[in-house]
Inverse folding.
């Protein structure tokens, strides 16, 4: 930021030129606050479902208070698997149709 000072007129009508001055603002961080308490599981806004027995239609009751858009399915070897259709019969339930039997984990967020 540049601050411009006008010329000063002193008594007796003497003009004293005052040079422009530059002011540098330096951000100063305050001290770090204390670490907060751990949140509850619902605060993580995610849910992991484990499908042990193979099924082509998997219904997950995630218990979240919204219809999640992030759904990632991984088979038992950790490979990401695509599904055929995805639907939300209720806010807390998501149905995933794989078309073929699936077992592994489904992460919902």
């Amino acid at each position: 930021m540049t601050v411009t000072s006008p010329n000063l007129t002193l008594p007796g009508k003497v003009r004293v030129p005052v040079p422009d001055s530059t002011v540098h603002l330096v951000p100063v961080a305050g001290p770090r606050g204390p670490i907060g308490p751990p949140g509850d599981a619902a605060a993580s806004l995610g849910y992991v479902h484990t499908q042990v027995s193979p099924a082509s239609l998997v219904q997950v009751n995630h218990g979240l208070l919204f219809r999640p858009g992030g759904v990632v399915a991984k088979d038992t070897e950790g490979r990401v698997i695509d599904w055929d259709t995805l639907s939300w019969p209720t806010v807390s339930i998501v149905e995933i149709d794989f078309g073929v039997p699936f077992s592994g984990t489904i992460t919902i967020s």
